[in-house]
Amino acid sequence: MARPRAIDRATILDAAEQVVLRDGAARLTLDAVAVVAGISKASVIYDYKTKQALIQAVVERWIAGWGERLDKATEPYIDGDDARLRGRIDVARDYKEEEDGAVVFQLCSAMTQDEQLRQTMNEGFRQELGKMLSSTKNPDKALLALLAIEGMSILQMFGVVEWQPEQREKILSGIEQLITQD
After folding, report:
1. C-alpha distance from residue 176 to each of 35, 45, 58, 73, 162 (Å)
2. Can you tell me the distance from the alpha carbon of 94 to that of 99, in angstroms, rounded to the nearest whole number?
3. Shortest CA distance to 130 belongs to which of 143, 119, 114, 116?
4. Residue 134 is assigned to a structural domain of this protein
5. What is the pLDDT of residue 35?
6. pLDDT over 90 for what percent of the chain?
């Protein structure tokens, strides 16, 4: 009988995110991840043969987590119009710098140098856009609203603007008005 796996992949990915936050994606090393995870480098290599494979796994996990977060935020609106977009607005209201900003910022820098990462992020966004547009009666308004939300979020993520909670709420309320007006 095979010995049960002692090292959870989530532990390695958590450690990789910590290294990305601390050092940046460009400086992530398998050695650094092993140290943070408290395991051997060989254990990291066993699951993720290369740095790029490890970053790819972090991106894929982040996309999946983001989708789950949106699914949960969408639940209260599931029987109404613009359910996914309303869920996205609620997620934007609950902005968490560490979850929504810092790691993504670092992963975006890695994405500029890796076509496969760009494809993964692009596919994740296309799938989410498809879900959002399929749950609306007015795709043009929904797209405009999504672009406004993403623009607001990206400006904060890249440190261009630090939205205060009341500013964020005013913007998101305006976006809600946009999608509810005929």
Report:
1. 46, 47, 32, 15, 21
2. 10
3. 143
4. yes
5. 95
6. 46
Residue 92 lies in a domain: yes
Q: Which domain range does residue 147 map to?
A: 58-180
Q: What's the CA gap between 3 and 106, in Å, rounded? A: 36
Report the number of distinct structural domains present in the chain. Answer: 1
Q: For residue 96, what are its two tokens? A: 């968490």
Q: What H or E segment, with its residue span, contains residue 112?
A: none
Structure tokens at 54: 């490890």
Residue 96 lies in a domain: yes
DSSP at 76: G
Distance in angstroms (rounded) separating the CA atoms of residues 55 and 110 = 8
Contact indicator for 178, 172 with CB cutoff of 8 Å: no
Q: What is the pLDDT of residue 162?
A: 87
Residues of the chain with pLDDT under 50: 1, 3-4
Locus of tokens 């607005």: 89
CA distances from 73 to 109, 153, 154 (A): 28, 17, 20
Please indicate, yes or no, if residue 42 is contained in any of the structural domains: no
Tell me the whole-structure pTM to 2 decimals: 0.81
In the structure encoding, which two tokens stand for residue 100, read together? 């929504």
Q: What is the pLDDT of residue 121?
A: 86
CB neighbours (10 Å) of residue 155?
Answer: 13
